[in-house]
Hints:
The complex is a heterodimer. Chain A is mostly helical.
Amino acid sequence: MTPETVLGELAGILGDTLGNDSIKLARSTVRSDIHDWDSFNYILFMVAVEKKFAIKFTVSDIEEFPNVGAIVDKIIDLTG
Amino acid sequence: MEWLPAVENFRQALQSAGSAGSPQAKLGELAHLARHRLGFIETLQLDRALAGVGTAKADGFTSLRVALVGSATLNQLEPGIRVAGLRHRLLFEVKTGSYGQYRQEILSASSFLREFTPDIVLLSLTASDVLGSVPLTASAAEVDAVVTKSVGDLQPLWRAIRENSGAAVIQQTFPELGPFIFGSFDRTIPGSPLRLVACLNERLAETARDDNVPLLDLATQIHRDGIDAWFDARHWLHAKQEIKPEAAPLFGELFARVVAAQRGASRKCLVLDLDNTLWGGVIGDDGIDGIVLGQGSAVGEAHLALQRYAKQQKERGIILAVCSKNDPAVAERAFREHPEMLLKRSDISAFAANWEDKAANLARIAKELNIGVDSLVFVDDNPIERARIRQALPAVAVPELPKDPAYYARVLADAGYFEAVSFTPEDRERTELIARDAERSAFLSVSQSMDDFLRGLEMAVVHGPVAKGDLARVTQLINKTNQFNTTTRRYTLDEIAGKAASPDCLALQFRLLDRYGDNGLVSTVILNRAPEPQALEIESWVMSCRVFGRELEFEAMNIVVEAARHHGAGALVADYIPTTKNAIIKGLYQEIGFAPVDPAGAEDGRSRWQLDLAAYAGRKTHIARREAPR
């Protein structure tokens, strides 16, 4: 999987989680850039991503992802 | 949730529901979608679409305010609760209390509970919060003392919720999460974490039963699914969620079932297909000796397991029926002659074996048993028949069955169609009661006249105020009765207890006996002080459809009038509130001798009636009277 594919998938999953079809994500996107992406929805998003890619993040991953790019890298790392 | 059918294209289905015309039509489509197998993200999406429609009043749905109160994070459960409610035709408006603030929320005068005025409060507490810290070395007596105090501390909370907000309480049991300290040896150590919480749950169950607080038994569900299906240490550490978000849809379903059961909306009748459902093979082709059932064959044992489950349900008061495309004589013969049949012909209250359409048969079964098709669960191994019934009779519950009959009983049990919050003598004897009704019908058909029939029944009514021992049955009767129900008001057990104890109210119960036996507690009347001077109002009057046409309504009214006079009233007033199901009593009050308060009547078909007690002469019936023993 290329980083671009993963990024596209993440935008779709986040869109489903937040009920917003027009979400665009870049590697540099952080939570505060996206309307409604609060800590509560963040957990739901994490769970949905785990399900989609059949992976499991660690508790420190969940706590410390600095931006969307870090999530993409971790997914590629775990599915690689 | 294996018993729910899969949805083919969720996104498309959701869009099409969203584009339905009126809010009512939207709600109907969303409820239909909610009766499918949905993942937790799909549940979120459906919940969002539901929010767009709103939870205001809608036809065929009951709106209820639900407060989640607890010691851990609970708001991840909200979407699952709302969507499960929709599945059960309940529109939940859900609010969650602040994290860790449950005592203050319940006991303080200015909490969100007071403002929100919920109908239902779900208490979901963590064991550690309730128990405090208990050393591993604690003796059995010390553990007993801690558990007694912990559960004892819950009782004032339940009472405060009931008294302050008038809400019904549902208490969640405590997840038994461990960890093992020794291993298997833990079970012998009173102070081990596992044993401690198990003890707490046992005591909770006893106390909740005595206080009439329904449980949401999460602990047992976790035993069934495994800890990992419900608890994720990461979400506990990260967000103090004791229930992980993926489990919210099932949690919601468990909750909605208890609420529906409280409101009498659980299913009443299990309708079973025969070939390849109750036994393996096709009896018309294979013959009675050729079907696969029982000992000696694993497949035969699987079908027997389904029969055993059905028999257990029958013993607790679920009506059994058969609906099969078969030759009736051949089908009945299997019940009478096959040595391995656990279900006997006498266990089946309605038997439809013929070559007609199953939807027509199901409608006929409901009619014969005098229940709605929305009380039926239909179990059939054939996916085409299942799809046909879902389409023709959407109110019938049709569980999806796995290909392997080994799992039939398990899936049916998991579907939780028969959730209950009480278990009454009438439940235990239901099949008997229905069988005796058949004898009465036979007697009616040989009687010369209605008068002969009623006299020949040798009826007696046993009546009295609703006593403590009657509360469960009276609540069940009021909440389950749709036809002879004057106002279709629903009450919790607490509310009935309150009415029974209030000096302003009279709560009366009636039990009908005849030569064929005891019909059980079949009618109840709740009277309250009316706005009119010197008058009592019939707030609710229900009677079981099993005793229609026996003059019980007239004898009951004679008794009500005497009780009202004794209470000092000069008149009775009563509303008739029409529903889609109670047209049968439209003329009831007129027939008894009540006069319409406003002859024009209200626009919605409601009517208010008045009876002058001084002028009421009483009506002669064929029913003798006996006072209920105190």
